[in-house]
């Protein structure tokens, strides 16, 4: 039972402190059940805002998000989220193993099964030995891997990732990209992966959505017609890879020419 995601006419306006920012104007797109879609767009174009609305952490100004046909109005069960600011998403007073186990407590699982999931998840991100450490004893890249392990252990149907590898070193990043593809292929989960890295979007995605600058709309949807089996060395030098990245690059450049809309707040009534 895997769920599709439908974003329909989504708009988000932030209001407060005399400012009114229309972060997302009108977004409509679908991620099919079991699909891996990458979303790219210039910094500040509303990617995090969009994901927070999709995760039920932020109420849209208008429009809606449907998960498996049901409207999202709070964090839906079966959805896991890897935040951009991972450092803040781990509890410093809990050991790594406890951090990974925490969301599992919402599930009706025995203690043994929970432990098993934690061990498996930490192993799959290469941190089998770190279960007893505190997050602040780990490097940034390791902390991010803990956040990913926490999402995996939960065995989500839908995984939303917000620029999850922006702060890790190149080698770890390549390994984690391959991990995401492997998990997606093995577990058939629905994945929406946000990145500002064009090569990463093309390498990872089965489809790439290019967003415009804020106020955001979908500028283009591109099918990534590369073989399902990807390889860090071979895929990235394939002629088709170069064509796709050029196409996405051109679209991003065009998108960057827009400016965010900042209007004065309406006068008080
Ligand atoms: P991205 O993730 O693509 O970099 P964000 O979704 O973080 O973009 O931000 C989109 C726009 O909304 C930016 O102009 C940002 O300044 C604004 N914004 C984000 N969060 C808030 C907030 N809580 N209050 C007011 N404006 C915000
Ligand atoms: Mg962001």
UniProtKB/TrEMBL annotation:
The keyword Transport applies. The keyword ATP-binding applies. Keywords: ATP-binding, Nucleotide-binding, Transport. Gene3D superfamilies: P-loop containing nucleotide triphosphate hydrolases. GO terms for molecular function: ATP binding; ATP hydrolysis activity. Residues 5-238 form the ABC transporter domain. SMART domains: AAA (SM00382). This is ABC transporter.
